[in-house]
Amino acid sequence: MQKKAQKAPAKREQHGTVSVKEMDVAESVDNAMPLETFSSAIDEGSTSFTDDQDQTDVSDVDNITLLQQKITLLELKLADCEEKLLEVKNENEILLSRQFSLDKIKDDNSAILFYTGFPSYKALMSFYKYIEPKLEKMQYWKGERLIKDSQPYQEDENRKKPGPSRKLSFLDEFLLVLMRLKAALFVQDLADRFGISISLVSRICITWINLLYFELKDIFPFPTQELVCKNMPEEFAEFASTRIILDCTELFIQRPSAMLAQSETWSDYKHHNTWKLLVGVTPNGQVSFLSDLWGGRVSDKQITRESGVLALLDSGDNVMVDRGFDIRDILPAGVTLNMPPFLAGRDQLTAAETEETMTIASVRIHVERAIGRIKTYHILDGCLPNTLSSYATQIATVCGLFTNFLPPLLPPAKPKP
């Protein structure tokens, strides 16, 4: 009996010891080391844990549990972020598919011609490759001043801070400008197609048109006598000395607000306010000269005298014009004129004069065909708004010289055997 009485307390002590440990575990869970502290302790190689081995084991278990909980939470957040990223990528693909680009039409020459005026994608890219090295130095127009934005991420030497990022590539900007000129798309339309602001569209157009104005004139200088003769069509066999065919065309414009400007641009011939453009083409139909724009009131003779075209002619050249374009008295020495005869008060032309008129008209008509090509750039075939008047000459010149990338109107005569 005495032995049994001595064993009973031992069992109670053991039972009591287990209860204390359970309480310690519960307390250690409530007071578990934070994840940051635990990570820091591991990184620093800390060994400053409690001397009580049981408490250390409980803390390890508790911290592992917390880490697992946080890992689970981070995995959920990562999955949510990946889902949102996928949605953004899908939206971006939809937006890119809606944005107009050259890749969408490069395999369709008819679309290339409609939107850009170039006969093919190859011809367009050949010209772009020519001007591409010059684009790094291009200065963009903004209001009344030019600002430098010549690189995708431009460095300002004063601030050493990256400049604004480019919204479009150079090639996309070039396409935008061509579409503005050839298809005469509205600025708002282009802004929507390319996903940029209206003001940026205007800025890009003004900048590029001024750049192209100078570059195209360098590519297509006034041709020499030898070059014109080399490409002389068979149709001009009777007029083999023809260097240039001249004619004027008029472009409708919005009526200016100033009374003087209204008077200077009024055309009695068109009964509208117009700009007048002197166009010169070679016998094979290449545009070789384009004057600045003049008010529709100015005579063809005055434009010819003051445009500078006569200074480009040499002795032995022949100039072909339409009836009424009488510039014989202002031609340089040694330069002749081919012009259909006119009645000059008579009732009718003689048989010889009628035949001469028909012969000259049959070849002079090619200047009208060349002008027709220029006006396929639809920005010119409507009514130019006053907002374009400050660089209307550049627009007309660029459109005219771009037609030289098309095949010649007349092929050169075959060499005689």
Kindly report the oligomeric state of this protein.
Answer: single chain
Compute the number of helices.
13
Query: What order do the SSEs take from the amino end to the carboxyl end, as H and E?
Result: HHHHHEEHHHHEHEEEEHEEHH
Helix content class: 40-55%
For the record, give the distance between the C-alpha atoms at the N and C termini, rounded to a whole number.
Answer: 146 Å
Please compute the radius of gyration using only Cα atoms. Answer: 41 Å
Number of strands: 9
Which regions have little confidence, pLDDT < 50, spanning 5+ residues?
1-39, 41-50, 145-164
> Could you say which overall geometry the principal axes of the C-alpha atoms support?
elongated
Q: What characterizes the major β-sheet?
A: 7 strands, mixed
Give structural notes.
- By secondary structure, the chain is an alpha+beta fold.
- It contains 13 helices and nine strands.
- The protein has helices at residues 2-30, 35-43, 53-98, 109-116, 121-131, 170-182, 187-194, 198-219, 225-230, 259-265, 300-307, 351-374, 392-402, and strands spanning 139-142, 145-148, 242-252, 266-267, 272-281, 287-290, 294-295, 318-320, 336-338.
- Strands 3, 4, 5, 6, 7, 8 and 9 form a seven-stranded mixed sheet that branches. Strands 1-2 form a two-stranded antiparallel ribbon.
- Strand 4 and strand 5 (272-281) form a beta hairpin.
- Mean pLDDT is 82; it is low at 1-39, 41-50 and 145-164.
